[in-house]
Amino acid sequence: MIRRKRKVNNEESIASIEVFGGVFALLLVLYVIMNIFSSSRLEERLDELSNNGEYKISWGEHGDGYVVLAYPDSIFIIENGSFIPHKNICKKGSSFYRYATSVYEGDQKQIIFAILDNGVETMRIARDCLQSIYPKKKVSIGWMIIDDQTMKSIKINDIPYYLEE
């Protein structure tokens, strides 16, 4: 049996490279389109969450808690997206001052401080501020320590069962 060696034509190899390049370009365009749609959908979902009270959680005896993140140098109010440096927390016109007065207008409502990265001192400043805003009223706060793993869970909407309770 005699085998003949088959010569690969340069035209065939160029055609296969062109097909591969075309498919790659098409997949790249599809990837860009999918990213655009997913990011626009995410923006829509974030816009829908901008109502007051969307970031409240059930806390305590049939009460509602509004989560504020406490960092070492500032606090972050999730509902209005504002960072307040700890030196400006208790200023009369600050975002935290206005936010606190709106939260504590109703009964059985409180601010829950999620303490991140050694933010205990900042939470203490905010707590003292609440006491100075309401000197004759009992003001309730809550707090929880949040580590990196918990923050990752919150970001991907996979909150552990023990935090959901």
The count of DSSP E runs of length 2 or more, i.e. the number of strands, is 6
Tell me the structural class: alpha/beta
Looking at the chains present, what oligomeric state does this protein adopt? single chain
Number of helices: 5
Largest sheet: 6 strands, mixed
Question: Any idea what the shape is?
Answer: elongated
Mean pLDDT: 76
List the helices and strands and how they pair.
Elements: H1 10-48, E1 56-59, E2 63-70, E3 74-77, E4 82-85, H2 95-103, E5 109-115, H3 120-133, E6 141-145, H4 148-155, H5 161-164
Parallel strand pairs: 2-5, 5-6
Antiparallel strand pairs: 1-2, 2-3, 3-4
Helix pairs in contact: 2-3
Please characterize this protein's 3D structure.
The chain is an alpha/beta fold and 165 residues long. It has helices at 10-48, 95-103, 120-133, 148-155, 161-164, and strands spanning 56-59, 63-70, 74-77, 82-85, 109-115, 141-145. Strands 1, 2, 3, 4, 5 and 6 form a six-stranded mixed beta sheet that branches. Helix 2 crosses helix 3 (120-133).
